[in-house]
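Team,

Forwarding the record for the chain on the shared tracking sheet. I've put the sequence and predicted structure together so nobody has to dig through attachments.
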Amino acid sequence: MNAEIKERFDEFIRLRGMRRTNQRDVIVEAAFASDDHFTAEELLAKSRRLDPKTSRATLYRTITLLVECGLLKEIDLGRDERVYDPNFLDSPDHNHLICVDCGKVVEFADDNVAVLVDCITRRLGFRPATKSMRIEACCDKLRSEGMCENLIQMRLGKAG
């Protein structure tokens, strides 16, 4: 985990009159162990592998704090599903392509998109504070092969 993340989070909670706790440290460590998107439940499982005493309530409060301080980005996948993206510090201008069939999330960055967003906002008299694009589409795998392991995993995850 990047030391800047820990410092930024520690400063954020200190300014709110909160203190560092072992459970918060474990949750932050689990959240930023990779650049992969995760759900709250997936983060809870990762955190409990590090410390089985990690509480669900502390996890949800910590996720909220991480989003508020700008370390995590919450992405609404539709269908009442939310995932969290831990790599906005390293790559703040990336966007997301989400498969409506299987839920697969693909990150992308494109200079043309950045120029287009800049042109649109300027033309309409705005200056963007943040930029984020979410495109919902159908991946080719299900259509071309008749099967998609992401769809199978998504359905198994919801059944379990």
